[in-house]
Amino acid sequence: MYQATYSALSQLTQLCPCHSSIATCLNQLRQARISFLNLGNIIICPQQSCILFFQQHYLIKIETFSR
């Protein structure tokens, strides 16, 4: 479980580095065919168990969650 979460977090970090814009991250997620739920300043990626947090349209952190 830990390895899968670390791998997913690593993939998302490469696709959406810190301070990326929301638009850039959404485009990267779509191109990588990663399913997500866009809630404005929060993007949830359920299959990767990760949440991306944005402030003023720029990524500030990515956190994992357990299912």
Describe this structure in words.
This protein is α+β, with helices and mostly antiparallel strands and 67 residues long. It is 36% helix and 28% strand. The protein has two helices and four strands. The radius of gyration is 11 Å and the shape is globular.
Q: Strand order of the main beta sheet, please?
A: 1-2-3-4
Overall 3D form: globular
Helices and strands: which structural class? Answer: alpha+beta
Low-confidence stretches: none
* Helix content, binned percent: 25-40%
Q: What value does the average pLDDT take? A: 91
Largest sheet: 4 strands, antiparallel
Number of helices: 2
- Beta-strand portion reads 25-35%
Backbone CA Rg: 11 Å
The multimeric state of the shown protein is: single chain
Based on DSSP secondary structure assignment, what is the total number of beta strands? 4
- CA distance, first residue to last residue: 11 Å
- Order of helical and strand elements: HHEEEE
